[in-house]
Write a structure and sequence with these properties.
Structural class: alpha/beta
Shape: globular
Radius of gyration: 28 Å
Number of helices: 24
Strand content: 5-15%
Strand order of the largest sheet: 7-6-5-8-9-11-10
Number of strands: 11
Oligomer: single chain
Length: 597
């Protein structure tokens, strides 16, 4: 029954990688999805898979009929995966927080840690049990090392195929519950085949055959309904209109009174008819420019910003958006004028990573607006770095305006907020001679190659607004004078005039760090202290501590004298492999983002 076992190990790898991706995507919707959360997901997953392999694996040698236990575990795995999705989507009701709300890190940590435990333990134990079964296939001639390698090969091969299938097929064709039930069906099929050729008891064969057909029926008939029902549970208290998944994450639209709100992977992206935000994003930048004609807008175009930009005498707008599904879904629920703005002949929509577009385009623009969320992830931080600003400078005309914003405070800047805002100002100063600021709940920065172009004179901006005959609800001459009063401007410049901060760079994401410190300060001062402490420790001391612990281990080894060097070598190899993998992924993300075209 070697072929049946190989198929089972292939299914194990396929299930492991696809279930990991599906559960991680679900957890990122439920929780604040930056790299700290992603790191927690991977750490928890690896811990439970490792514990399942090592801790539970210790009893593998004591099991009398390992093939029967392996079949049992496959059946349990098939039942656990859909249940895990249901549990994850229930977390917001359990903790009484709404989606879009930022959750404190410790809640995220213990939730993720325990939610991933069942699946990780089963997958880890199955690997060890599979290695024993393979090693005993020839009586009296166990070859544990070679056969463990065989199990690892077929499991890894399944993981490779699973990753390719998910990325290029499953995510476009099926919802999470359909994917989970498809994996359940595949595991029941594998268990049935193993029982058919490896067990004599006909009751097991009949039971597994029935479970396979029930799972197949559930996948065919009930998967869509289960996905909708569990999504309604996740969005309890909201009127969920639609929810869909793309390769970039989940997009959900909920209705609040007469408006629609779009959430990307659980975080609020925009609300229709949020005129105030749209007017600020568009008019500040275009009023700073004496004669805006050719506009580049990166992100946020469907939220109403394009409609406001078109009120100015512009000739061309290139709107760069990463996810085509976001625009496709949004257009169904946008107000008529916002929808017409997207279809205007002056507007060209480019579906591409924003930074990759800036790097590759040969066009020049007189106004460039970054209308993206704050750098709360390393992925977003790429749009706030010195290297990116230098790329922007190459495609900005000599008298052009570059606009970018950060969350801030209207009246008072605490230490964390001050560092956060100042890090971006310091970075902009290293690239652009001309700078201006408009303070508020969002602080807007305007940069130019010509130091005389950006202005903090509200009268000049008000004059341009009147001269262009632009009708606005909030950004009016009176509002500009209020926002840009001398008292406000003097205060903000004084607060952000810090000289001891490092600029934000691709490989030194200081703004991303300050955003996380700001986040932790709101919920958990202890975690903020941890971040602050680690930021002061150089890489040399971290490396020295690792080697010091290993030396201590060698010096005091007693009981594990023979095993300790081998275990240490495995530990160092695993650590080095993971560090290199993270560095490569982060480097690729910095230079290419999501696009290679």
């Amino acid at each position: 029954m070697r072929k049946e076992l190989i198929f089972a190990f292939f299914v194990l790898g396929l299930t492991s990688i696809i279930s990991q991706i599906v559960l991680f995507r679900e957890l990122l919707v439920s929780f604040y999805g930056n790299e700290l959360v992603i790191g927690t997901l991977f750490a928890s997953w690896l811990f439970w898979v490792g514990f399942g392999s090592w801790g539970l694996g210790k009893i593998a040698d004591k099991i009398s009929s390992p093939i029967k236990k392996f079949i049992f575990l496959q059946s349990i795995l098939a039942l656990v995966l859909p249940l895990e999705i249901f549990l994850i989507r229930s977390t917001n009701n359990l903790y009484q927080f709404t989606l879009g709300e930022i959750v404190d890190y410790w809640t995220i940590f213990y939730s993720v840690f325990f939610l991933l435990a069942p699946l990780g333990l089963i997958l880890g134990f199955q690997f060890t049990l599979g290695s024993k079964i393979f090693s005993l296939k020839e009586k009296g001639k166990p070859k544990i090392a070679a056969e463990t390698g065989g199990v690892y090969f077929w499991e890894s091969f399944g993981s490779i195929i699973g990753a390719i299938f998910f990325t290029y097929l499953l995510v476009f064709l099926f919802n999470p519950f359909q994917i989970a039930l498809a994996l359940s069906t595949l595991n029941f099929l594998s268990a049935f085949i193993l029982a058919l050729f490896g067990l004599k008891n006909w009751k097991y064969k009949v039971s597994l055959g029935c479970l396979f057909f029930l799972s197949l029926i559930s996948f065919s008939i009930f998967a869509h309904q289960l996905n909708q029902s569990s999504n309604l549970l996740r969005w309890r208290g909201w009127k969920l209109i639609t929810s869909a998944d793309s390769i970039y994450g989940n997009i959900s639209i909920v209705k609040m009174k007469k408006n629609f709100s779009l959430f990307q992977s659980g975080l609020l992206s925009f609300t229709t008819q949020d005129t105030f935000s749209s007017e600020e994003a568009a008019h500040y930048a275009l009023l700073e420019n004496p004669s805006p004609k050719k506009i580049l807008l990166i992100g946020g175009g469907v939220s109403g910003a394009i409609k406001e930009i078109l009120k100015h005498p512009v000739k061309k707008i290139i709107y760069v958006e990463l996810d085509p599904l976001l625009v496709k879904i949004s257009q169904r629920y946008l107000p008529v004028k916002d929808k017409e703005a997207l279809e205007n002949l002056k507007v060209k929509i480019v579906f591409q990573d924003g930074r990759h577009f800036v790097k590759k385009t040969s066009e020049k623009f007189d106004t460039i607006i970054i209308n993206l969320p704050d750098p709360y992830t390393a992925q977003l931080n790429r749009f706030y770095t010195e290297e990116f600003f230098k790329e922007i400078k190459k495609i900005l005309t000599q008298k052009g305006i570059f606009s970018i914003k950060l969350s801030s405070s209207q009246e008072y800047l605490g230490k964390e907020m001050k560092n956060y805002n100042a890090s971006l100002l310091i970075t902009l100063k290293r690239v652009f001679p001309g700078l201006a600021i408009i303070p508020g709940e969002n602080i807007y920065f305007f940069a130019s190659i010509d130091k005389n172009i950006p202005t903090e004179d509200p009268e000049l901006l008000a004059h341009r607004l009147i001269r262009r005959k632009i009708q606005t609800r909030y950004v009016t001459p009176v509002f500009l004078r209020y926002k840009m009063s001398s008292e406000r401007l003097n205060y903000i410049h004084k607060q952000l005039g810090l000289k001891n901060l490092e600029p934000n760079r691709d490989f030194s994401p200081i703004s991303f760090y300050y955003d996380n410190v700001l986040w932790s300060a709101k919920f958990n001062p202890f975690f903020r202290q941890i971040l602050t402490t680690f930021s002061r420790i150089s890489f040399f001391w971290i490396l020295f501590s690792v080697f010091f612990l290993l030396i201590i281990g060698f010096a005091f080894r007693t009981r594990f004298s023979q095993e300790f060097p081998i275990l240490s070598l495995i530990w160092i190899t695993g650590l080095a492999g993971m560090v290199v993998e993270i560095i490569l992924i982060y480097s690729f993300q910095v230079f290419y983002g999501y696009s290679l075209t």
